[in-house]
Amino acid sequence: MSIDAPLALYETAVKPEWLDVNDHMNVAYYVLAFDQATDALFSFVGVGEAYIEARSCSMFALECHVTYDAELRGGDGIRITTQLLGYDAKKMHFCHQMYHHDSDRLAATSEWMGIHIDMETRRSAIFPDDIARRLGEISDAHADLPAPPGIGRVISLKAGRPR
Fold first, then answer.
1. CB-side exposure of 100: number of CA atoms within 13 Å?
2. 7, 50, 118, 123, 124 from 53: Cα distances, Å
3. Nearest to 34 by CA among 147, 146, 138, 112
4. With contact defined as beta carbons under 8 Å apart, do 145 and 5 qualify?
5. Which of 20, 93, 129, 145 could bridge across to 85 with cysteines, CB 3.0–4.6 Å?
């Protein structure tokens, strides 16, 4: 099976209830759309809802960084791509990039670190062999992709008062 690089697993449109007082997409709904793209990624990897029910394991978010790069308005189409940046025995590091569907302009990014959890103990757990193999296949397919802009960046201001 061919694996897209990056993955294109999720599309939607900005819903009226996602708009804020500025008449554009509220920050909370960017995170919601990214979370829905994360669900699509987890299903693609094999750790979606059926996996949770069958194996009593799941994925939890450890960290998430969001950037807001361009405004989205009501009805705008959204396309989210996903790149696997790395994984180890228990964790996945990935990045989503949200694009305005029509113009292809980058609207936002979301970098995530997720951890595999045994739902009975509520502790981290090693990925089963089949999931580790699947992550390896995706990682191989994404190996030649450049790192998305801003990966691993830190929020900061220079010390001192504004002038």
1. 16
2. 25, 5, 12, 17, 17
3. 112
4. yes
5. 93
